[in-house]
Amino acid sequence: MQWDQTAVFWTHSVTPIVVGTPIAVLAVGLLNKNEDGKKRGMYLASTMLISTVFSAGLKYSIQRKRPFIAYPDLDQVVAADTPSFPSGHTTKAFALATSLSLAYPKWYVIAPSFLWAAGVGYTRMHLGVHYPSDVLGGMILGSGTAFLSVKLNQWLNKRIEKDWFFDGKKSVDDAYQPNN
User: Fold this and answer.
1) Distances, alpha carbon 141 to alpha carbons 34, 53, 112, 149, in Å
2) CA 45, CA 26: separation in Å to the nearest integer?
């Protein structure tokens, strides 16, 4: 029972973290008048939007029943009223972890981001609302949308012939130089 409460807390951390992180990065970029910080915040936000749209589209296209519906003996610890595949929580967590890792390629960003995302995936199964394949699908979809978002930003930069968007090429150290 104690682990159930921890799992519920962990799984409910997704929305505040995936909404708050892009806002915080963007706000710091705006406050510091740092163009690269603003681009990274917008990149994180666009990744979250893209991952949410793709996840919802797949959920309602596939219409997979939740494990607690297919197997009534399973305990459902948290509410879930949408179809099962892919795990939306896992998709968003891995989209954020991957996009943070691309925007800030340092071990102290990458390791905690992916540990948190993996924990989210595990809690979705532990709480009886997802199959392992739902979580795996969310991991792949979330990571894929982060890479798609970088490619989209690179294409937009090339198309408008100005670096208005995060291009995934600058290192984090370059973003905090005084001339940026």
Assistant:
1) 30, 11, 20, 12
2) 9
Tell me if residue 166 falls in helix, strand or coil: coil
Share of the chain above pLDDT 70, in %: 86
Tokens matching residue 44: 């994180």
Cβ atoms of 99 and 144 closer than 8 Å:
no
3-state secondary structure (DSSP) of residue 21: helix
Q: Is the peptide bond before 86 cis (omega within 30 degrees of 0)?
A: yes
In the prediction, which pLDDT does 169 show? Answer: 63
Of the ranges 72-76, 126-130, 151-155, the best mean pLDDT one: 126-130
pLDDT at 143 over 80: yes
d(CA 126, CA 130) in angstroms, rounded, equals 8
| 113, 101 contact by CB (below 8 A) | yes
List CB contacts of 4: < 8 A, sequence separation 6 or more: 77, 126, 127
pTM: 0.84
Q: How far is CA 85 from the centre of its chain?
A: 16
